[in-house]
């Protein structure tokens, strides 16, 4: 795993945390440039996530042959246990303590659909959001996994084009004719393709390590996100996010040995899953005792998110993933994976 991308993944996760902090505590009515940035631009962390996801999935599957079934199983084992745990926890909280949450509605049907990554209208009436609201991005992730699994049915040189064609047919065709949920009509899914494109460029040696030109790309992407409204999310935030990811890939030599950044990136998925629950608890503290919102955020929410995400990563993500992989049926002996270096390609 590229440490620069792990660091960027951590940054993206905490951008989303700050975005939801502004939503839950201030209803996006922010004062000051920092508050305004996270209110209006913190959601761009999701776009960075999607580009990173396309890059990581593409690179991680190059060094070993796989079947579509094995690829899907590995990916689902990676994301499902923690997601199901926090979805169940959220469902229990909605039933038992819904009065303390802004949208206390949950039904058995929507709960089960959430577990199965099926987009459905939230019973709270505010859109196609699962029981654990942040899971809407995982619905796109699983959709991308399904499409990406088709790559293993085609020659390697044709695989990125095949994924692009299938995504285009579904987003631009199937959704318009009602053959697929309108949820998938969002062009945000093309951000996965941007990540694949960066992966192809890196594999072919087109991305050269550097300092100033990668920093310039990162700066250009950040400025674009800051100034552009996401009227067309792919163009306004997706492409700038790709510039940021591309710049970080080229900066990889400067991240060697950065264990803390790698550790933060490792925990980013758990940060993403747990932060809403912690922020809701923080809001209850503010409402009950009239504490300062920023004081509660930095003194209670941030430390607790950090601690819980570390425990979640160690106990849910790593341990359950290893247990599930050991339990899952194995395919016939596979060749030993080669290290992910250009020399092996």
Descriptive report:
Helices cover 67% and strands 0% of the residues. It has one domain. The protein has helices at residues 3-26, 33-41, 44-60, 68-97, 108-115, 136-148, 159-174, 190-203, 212-227, 233-250, 259-266, 268-289, 293-327. The chain is built from 13 helices and no strands. With 345 residues, it is mostly helical.
Gross geometry: globular
* Beta-strand share of residues: under 5%
Number of strands: 0
Tally of individual helices = 13
Number of domains: 1
What low-confidence regions span 5 or more consecutive residues with pLDDT below 50? 331-345
Q: What is the average of the pLDDT values?
A: 89
Radius of gyration: 20 Å
Series of secondary-structure elements, N-terminal to C-terminal = HHHHHHHHHHHHH
Distance between the termini: 16 Å
Please summarize the sheet with the most strands. Answer: none
Helix content: 55-70%
Query: Based on helices, strands and strand pairing, what is the structural class?
Result: mainly alpha
How is the topology of this model organized?
Blueprint: H1 3-26, H2 33-41, H3 44-60, H4 68-97, H5 108-115, H6 136-148, H7 159-174, H8 190-203, H9 212-227, H10 233-250, H11 259-266, H12 268-289, H13 293-327
Helix pairs in contact: 1-2, 1-3, 1-11, 1-12, 3-8, 3-10, 4-12, 4-13, 7-8, 8-10, 9-10, 12-13
